[in-house]
Amino acid sequence: MGRFLSSLSTQSPASNVVSRSKLHGLVACGGEDGAVECFDIMRERSSIGRIDATGPSGDVNQEVSAIEFDDGGYLMAVGSSAGEVLIYYLRSSHPVQIKDHM
Predict the structure, then answer these.
(1) Do 62 and 70 touch, CB atoms closer than 8 A?
(2) Do 19 and 67 form a contact (C-beta atoms < 8 A)?
(3) Over the chain, what is the mean pLDDT?
(4) Do 64 and 50 meet the contact criterion of CB atoms below 8 Å apart?
(5) Which of 5, 25, 26, 30 is most buried, with most CB under 10 Å away?
(6) Where is the Nucleolar protein 10-like N-terminal domain (predicted)?
């Protein structure tokens, strides 16, 4: 289009990490409030979903420190500031698996 588009705005006070799926283009932002917010930037400029990603692990004061999509495009790994990794299936708001790296 030859012009800059508007920035993505999240509900989190600050974003720690941003990741993009190579398969379907979904963009996920991890915030300091422990939430992951997803954007489908090819179709919409607003958020299409938001989950409390670190809440199911039990500690409410964690931040999202890493996000990575798998090659299949339907699983997302979320790393927390407490050293835990939560695996999410994109169609569910509950983690499939939680691992603690101590």
Answers:
(1) no
(2) yes
(3) 88
(4) no
(5) 30
(6) 2-102
* pTM for the predicted model, two decimal places: 0.85
CB 95 within 8 A of CB 36: no
Beta strand 84-89 pairing with 95-100: antiparallel
Parse the chain into domains and list their residue ranges: 15-100
1 pLDDT band (50/70/90 cuts)? low
Residues in a beta bridge with 84? 100
Which CATH number does 15-100 carry? 2.40.10.480
Rounded-to-10 torsion of CA 33, 10, 67, 64: -10
